[in-house]
Amino acid sequence: MSLAQQFAAYSQWRLAIIAATERFRQWLIEQDLSDAQAELRLSRLEARIREDKLNVAFVAEFSRGKSELINSIFFAAYGNRVLPSSAGRTTMCPTELLYVTGKPPAIDLLSIQTRGGNTSVSEYKQNPDAWQRILLDVHSARAMQDALRQVSEVIRVPAEEADKLGFTVDATQIGAFHAGEDGLVEIPRWRHAIINFPHPLLEQGLVILDTPGLNAIGTEPELTLSLLPNAHAVLFILAADTGVTQSDLLVWREHIASNHGKRGRLVVLNKIDGLWDDLKSEAEIEAEIAHQTETCANILGISAAQIFPVSAQKGLVAKVNQDAELLGKSRLPELEAALSGELIPAKHDIVRDDTQGEFGEIHRHIQELLEVRRANLKEQIAELSDLRGKNRGVVEYMMGKIKVEKDEFDTGLQHYYAVRSVFSTLTNKLFAHLGVKPLRQLTEKTRQTMLDATFSRQISRAIRAFFQEVKANLKQSSEEIKEIRIMMDAVYKRLHVEHGLKLAKPVDFSLAIYGKEIHRLETWCDTHLNTAIQFMTHEKKNIAHKFFEEIAMQSQKIFARANWDVESWLKIIMGPVETQVREHQLHLKRRLDSIERIHEAADTLEERINELGAMKDDLQQQIKSLDAIAGAMQTLMGRSGNKGQKTEDRRQKTEKTGRTA
In this structure, are residues 348 and 601 in contact, taking their beta carbons and an 8 Å threshold? Predict the structure, then answer.
């Protein structure tokens, strides 16, 4: 099964999850079990799954065949090249290929001049007027290729302007930009490109990130701090004829190796057709490819099994011409199998865990509610059954007993209301440390300190102080989360002991993942920005600009995600308490109402018992229906289409093939 087929199967599975979630939501409404919290959580879950993307990034120096590899893997069925592929540079700016329903096929281009301000690419994505749009004629491959060549355009600017825009001008450094004899520096014309293309894979949620070479990859902060680290798969492409060059090694160490522990980081040794030689035997050619693979692996510090030798150009030709023999010789299917083996299961796990988390919590909440109702009905039926044959005095005694129980519960609610007040106070304290607004205030204070600084060490201290305060806020927030957790645990236990309410243990929550992300930003800052070389070669305003564009913006995104997750957690731990308290109040009211009606002879005892029995039967049917829904969802969670064979098996097969050769 090809990568395209695997992805199509995954997309169908994802649609089945959305349909099952919608059926669950409709069932809750029909059974009068839905509330604002459940409705909001299910709506958000559906939206997340519907908007789910599969991000694949391609990273390489120029002339490694990166665009051709993208064409051969994803766009061969188009019958021609979608991305322009030729000698020299074909991608000068980060380029995203995706499809947004309702938007015309077009390429949106963001001017490189926007790097002169403090606005990030993600913020510009919210402002369509900032982009230059070129419509695509999807019915003409040539017209489309001409339009897409825009991503390779460059402009020549003075060295001062290049430096202002973040392009280091230094003739002694690899990867730096160089001034020509006329004193001008050649830089990309565009900062970012977004191609909206109605291709089946893109329509199903695939997003392809095509990156520029070393000369441009390190200049865009969101590429190095967000897009690449968060990609579900990263393909690092080398050329078989050159092996690992010094610039290749810099790209690998700076932007790929730091994330080597993540799934989906693959190395591709492209252009192996350059090693094909009619004067050599197949065994000699295979040995030469294996030797080059081993050499590259040693330089990169990885296993040879992690490198996939291919010929993207021959693979594309083979697919277009339906030449199975040439396709096999290109080794492209082996790479696609490895990519799908890493990519699809990883995304399946993410969607499955997200769905099980949200659906599981709502299911548990509804299940507890129905079980409480069943227990209450059982108690009420038993209570009324015991009144059979009893005189009026016994009925009055029972009515008085229930009134006392109800009064005791109402009195106990005063403690619950006090707890809610404390909960609100603790929540406000938590968001005072974790909120995005306090972080923005810290950012502005740090910005002013850096701009007012006279010496580089003052800027360095301001950066360190920023991270110290951010980490202190996270630590304090973690302590407040722990305090809320302990308090709610006590509330759960008290309600159970004093009033018999059945509440599961409060859900745990941790900010550890966000602390790790902040640590990653600090490490990047210490190696790329807060260094003596940077202070010596850049003006302080440029360093300040780079810090706020790269570090502060990413920190705010991290805190925004943390806020979202904390808000959801607070609703999860308080929601069951509110529901159970409300349900117990209604139960006591119903019990008292039943006894009073019998006491006043408004209903006969047997009529009321029969009525409660019918309600119990309906409730039992609801519980069975809920169990069936949960079972169907659990079955669906274990299926994602054909997830494919594990990549480790393929790597072992590759190693065996290499040894045989």
Answer: no
Q: Helix, strand or coil for residue 507? A: coil
Axis crossing angle, helix 312-321 with helix 66-74, rounded to the nearest 10: 30
Of 559, 554, 478, residue with least CA distance to 522: 554
The model carries a pTM of 0.72
Q: Which domain covers residue 200, as residue numbers? A: 53-153+189-342
Question: pLDDT of 414-470, one tens digit each?
Answer: 777 888 888 899 999 999 999 888 898 998 899 888 888 888 888 889 999 999 999
Do 200 and 335 belong to one domain? yes
What gap in Å lies between CA 273 and CA 528, rounded to an integer? 38
**599 falls within a domain:** no
CB 106 within 8 A of CB 135: yes
Q: Identify whether 491 is part of a domain.
A: yes
Whether residue 606 is contained in a domain is answered as no
Q: What is the enclosing helix (H) or strand (E) of 173? A: none
Say whether both 148 and 180 belong to one domain: no
Cα 387 to Cα 383: distance, rounded to the nearest angstrom:
7
Residue range 333-358, pLDDT digits in tens: 999 888 888 778 878 888 888 888 88
**List of residues 6+ apart from 271 with CB closer than 8 A:** 64, 65, 239, 240, 241, 311, 312, 313
- 493 has pLDDT over 90: no
Amino acid identity, position 281: S
Strands 190-196 and 95-98: parallel
**DSSP label at residue 211:** -
* Type and span of the H or E element at 259: none
Place of tokens 């850049």: 538
Q: Is residue 604 part of a domain?
A: no
